[in-house]
Queue: 3 jobs
Job 1
Amino acid sequence: MSAKEATSTVPVSVDRLTKRLETLSTFTEPGKPWQRTAFSSLHLAAREWLRAEMQALDLDTHIDAGGNLIGRLHGTSNGLAPLASGSHSDTVPSGGRFDGALGVIAALEVVSALRDAGYRLRHPFEVIDFLAEEPNQYGLSCIGSRAMAGELTAENLGVTAPDGTTLAEGIRLMGGDPDKLTTPLRRHGDMAGFVEIHIEQGRVLESAEEDIGVVTAIVGITRIAVDIEGRADHSGATPMGLRKDALVAASKMIAAFEAQAKQEFYSPMVATVGKLEVFPNASNVIPGKVAFVLEIRSGQPKTLAQYQKWADWTIRDVAGEQGVSARTRILGKSDAVAMDTDLQLAISDAASAAGLKYRSMPSGAGHDAAHVALFAPAGMIFIPCLDGRSHCPEEFCTPEQIAKGVQNLVDAIIALD
Ligand code: HGY
Ligand code: MN
Ligand code: MN
Ligand code: MN
């Protein structure tokens, strides 16, 4: 860290940050760095370690009804609503070591750095590991932060995973209490401010050689499950004109999704089909069924709604042409949301005081902060990551980049106190 950054009254420890990140990354599926999917036994083990780290810092720990692991540091004025920081300890399949993990470890570092400096905040401070931020076997992302904001419905809780368990049972497994999720766990006024630090998962900061992204808004996301039913048939004996090939129909839809998303009119938006299953998935059988998920994202709510309507028509038109049937189901939605301007200012003021290069920018990735923003002032700090890559084992950021970002987080929390 440059001398300038070391002038903070509450300096962070690069070594401690690196060590905790390395320890958290050891909780991964053997031979699959780095995979710690939500609700897995690895995820449970990782959270036990996190809870022990919180307790070693004398934090009062609990798991709320939404399955969020929370460690609370008392302030000098405990009547005040807490300040908070955190993210998620679950990963995507074959993911990275920093997406989510950085935010949880950084929140722990805030407490460690305050203790080392003998600095007492007025506000209580909460370290939060949100449950299941990544899409998971129940099809819904940001489970814990949605629960906190009161967004989970009875329908969400009743969704059954391929392993036969419902989301409610999954939340209970993780220590939550789904029976208490009919109302928000937190309301306006229950949290003074929440700041999440996260790798950018894009290449803007790296190419501009800047240290900090002050997030202005988080993209809206809609995920649609599409089930296509054709007719399984013999691949050799069935003439081309007599087929009801579910995969050909899906392929035509997916090519249309991509072409439409590239239209200037919709820009900037993104459309992705990253999950697709073919049944029976045999080289000599015409695919009878295909199930895929279309994910669309935009900062403009109208764009998302218009594209979704167009996609529904397209799915129906292509299915008709191909002689197959198609059903769609909304898996999950999160609206585009603005970050709190006072928190943006605290982050950018702290960055300039520390001599860091920063910019304001939107987030193309979804985050728990988007749901916290529904009941509390929320802000996000981005740090650069190698080639902007994420959701893959190549995800990387240097200890220096991490230290600058976490120091910015500590300085912003102190400024907000
Ligand atoms: O998908 C997302 O945007 C987030 O990284 N889970
Ligand atoms: Mn992610
Ligand atoms: Mn994340
Ligand atoms: Mn995210």
Job 2
Amino acid sequence: MWGGRFAGGPSAIMREINASIPFDKALWRHDIAGSRAHVAMLGAQGIVSGEDARAIDEGLQTIAAEYERNGVPEDWDLEDIHMTVEARLTELIGPVAGRLHTARSRNDQVATDFVLWVRDACIRAENALKGLMQALLARAEEHAGSVMPGFTHLQTAQPVTLGHHLMAYFEMFTRDRSRFADARDRMALCPLGSAALAGTGFPIDRQATASALGFDGPTRNSLDTVSDRDFALEFLHAASTCAIHLSRLAEEMVLWASQPFGFVRLPDTLSTGSSIMPQKKNPDAAELVRGHAGRIIGCATSLMITMKGLPLAYSKDMQDDKPPVFEAAGLLDLSLAAMTGMIADSTFQTPRMRAAAEAGFATATDLADWLVREAGIPFREAHHITGAAVKLAEERGLALDALPLDELKAIDDRINARVFDALSVDASVAARSSYGGTAPDQVRARVAEGRKMLGTG
Ligand code: ARG
């Protein structure tokens, strides 16, 4: 394809280090779409004859059908997907195939293919996130009133509702979804026509190719265009943040499924057994989602480091942009699917969660708040009195609301029988009805808003 000025072919090692076809064949659909838009424009502009443009377009369609059926052949001598398609086109229609690359370089070609691919990956992630968010809404509604311990420092803090806890993840995934959509907004300009780095002298119509490929218009600076991989970096950033959220959810599933917690039974379909311990049901899918997050973040780091030292415009280092993006996208697709199944099909052990909330003095804040409200005691003093009550309960091995009234009165005689209304975990969550709080009514309101936002209710 470029042998004119060379005396001999590349060494075996050159062929191997140079070949991107093993991975960039994933771009074949976008490569052929880009070439069809390009040749239609060349024909319309009279840069190639209408007859040649038609022959080329038919050849490209034949190749697409072949690849669809049999996959893309991997010949290292052909380097990459662009050369692979062109070589096959030459076999099919002869030397006229050589007119396709008029007013184009692989540099603007690969930038176009890749941004099209990343745009699709964003749309995939947005759709998968929507599915996960719908699953969260359904389970949150079901468990709007299910009480569990809320934690800080992984120590029992205050009772919360399981619905509220699940809706916390809904918020994270809402932000993730908007990050992918927002990144996609900046993928609206088409690289094709920037050529190698400086543009071209042929009378091309960049608006035409941009529109044909679903872009708003052409990019504005050819040097920037062929050396820009911000779109891939933005995708990897959005994927990394999303993976962090998936990993935290996965970590909680692992923790909750453990015997000491016993908060959840994971679906059999997303668990595995042990070859030696017959009683085991392991949360492998959740663990792998947690693991994959590390790999996705590694992919983002990899491309940032590839890009950070490159002078303008294209350098071959940039061929290394694709493996981390493809890897991260594949891992993210899988992780989203696994967590959607886990949320939809897990069995939450609500009696166990409630017992844990009742066991950990989780309503101590409610006692302090009651002393402030009912007895007019300053909060700091109320905090101290409550501390003494917790100490006593701990010594006696009782829950706070099981302490006899006279013993509470002995700590502070402003306490009366009405305090027991405030000390149940249900009273505690119901009281936290400030906007965005854990009260069941608040959770139901947020679920309704979430449905509206997703256009599903
Ligand atoms: N396979 C190359 C890549 O992915 C295509 C661009 C090659 N351009 C070049 N000037 N050698 O980056």
Job 3
Amino acid sequence: MLNHHKEDTIESVLKEKRIIHPPSTFSANARIKSFQDYEKLYQESISDSENFWGNLAEKELHWFNKWDRVLEWDPPHAKWFLNGKLNITYNCIDRHLTSSRRNKPAIVWEGEPGDSRTLTYEELHVEVCKFANVLKQLKVTKGDCVAIYMPMIPEAIIAMLACARIGSVHTVIFGGFSAESLKDRLKDSQAKILVTADGGFRKDKIISLKSQVDIALKNNSSIVEKVVVVKRTSESIAMEHGRDYWLHDLQQDISDNCPPEIMDSEDALFILYTSGSTGKPKGVVHTIGGYSLYTHITTKWIFDIQDTDTYWCTADIGWITGHSYGVYGPLSNGATSLFYEGVPRPSNPGCFWDIIERYKVNIFYTAPTAIRSFIKMGDDIPKKFNLSSLRLLGTVGEPINPEVWMWYYEIIGNEKCPIVDTWWQTETGGVMITSLPGAISSKPGSASLPFPGIVPDIVDKNGDNVPDNTGGLLIIKNPWPSMLRNIHGDRQRFEENYWNSLSKKSDEHIYFSGDSARRDSDGYFWILGRTDDVMNISGHRLGSMELESALVSHQAVNEASVVGKPHEIKGEDIYAFVTLNNGFEATNELISELKQHVVQEIGAIARPGTIQFTRELPKTRSGKIVRRFLRQIAANQNIKGDRSTIVNPDILDELKEQAQLHN
Ligand code: 6R9
């Protein structure tokens, strides 16, 4: 199987002609049942978009006070549902308590060691209120930032909702990040409180989160005031007097009554950090009203969740997918959302299929990198399990190779489940381009068509349209409810990075995604990848600059340039070219040391696959490293393109020759 997908190149994607239609039984019961229905909805959404979003907001959400205006668009600054008052936790929890959903599981959770927990909507309400009261007791008030650095356990979700309940702003920091990354994000967000756990279980090991916290906070009394620690692994950990508190101690005798804070539609809900093309991660800010509506309606129409469904999104809550389609979207729809602490591992390669069988999961949403690793493990593993409960599959995070799509369709979906390939970003808050499972036929490898209300386009770097089937920059032409509102503390970066990137037509204020794509003659979008120096490693965004800074912070490294190299499971792998300081020798030991150093600086997801030492890097006259050539070398391709811009062209052949040793 993998042999096929290795050959997936842009050319083979261009040749992809298969079309898979929604099964008629699926369409008959779906919310959006036909292509005509989609087209009608799309037309309505575009011809009077404020009316479209206003009607949905009124119908789908509970507001304490209705808004005065749907949209104020002062490009690139948008305000949605002006003066509307709401609380996302009221929509995600309280409103379900007056119906039969009260006793329905909201969260079904399984730990890696096999322990499990179910929280009904009523129980979730109690837990969120108790946690919210703990935060209040710690003097967290509206607008304060609370950081969450947790394994995938129910308390992580409860903590997010507790923040939203009292109007504080959460920033979830992926539990796989190192102390250094944690520290940077805590500083930038100015979080007052940090919620963490003694540890978590991952790949049969204990991840000691609290010790990372201790390193991050060491000699840094100005970062967070207090740390709330959830007991998960019961490992012995250090607790600093006056700073660290066990959650169970704080919760003794705490009230379970905590009315939701009345929030303005444009108050911040969360900050989530993501990599950009500079060394400093961007704190993407989302606000309550627009995000509530957009995650609600995309979940409802794309995943077509019905009240009897069990839905599972495998993303960690440290990423936007976990926020929008693990927590907020499903709960707002009153769904049962499943969470799993662990990941497939050699001791339990079939754990995902086992969970699908045991919990009778109906809707399953995961990433291409995971699917590729399942293919590699062999069809025998999923075939041992009963996957017949599944009725819909989804994918997100990176382009899915057509052959990988077909495997997912045939082996996991048994050719009866539609697949939604959903294109979106941390910045967009929710899915922008996707098929709708009952209405839009899929072409394997294409994210399909825009969601209602979204107007994507493909342009060149001047902002001019490119013909169909030609690659170009993927842009969005209109504002949408869950668009990012800011980069935390850096309005200028927000404006320049996303809205002023096209030289000629910057006055048009179109949203620049940083991805390239092509549109075919049926209007389907095919995402080709990033156009900036951001890599996509197993569906996680990592900026070249962040990695380079991490490498250069090692005493042996003089200069580093990092590019992505195609990888059969991860999509891309990290390939670093490094020059050394005098007195350091290029040894295998140093390679291992540098890899470990990057893990320490950023986290395990950033471990470079290859480090190649060199005496020089290819540079322009103005001293800029030319990554384009380095990408070709890393990919083991012939060097193509104009070398005349480089001052030291000879280095290219030398690098190429040495690269053979690494490939
Ligand atoms: C949701 C999420 C965003 C970047 C995005 C693009 C890539 C996401 C994709 C996809 C092709 C899809 N991406 N979904 N590429 N097809 N269905 O992943 O957010 O972590 O911010 O990453 O991921 O390159 O620009 P985020």
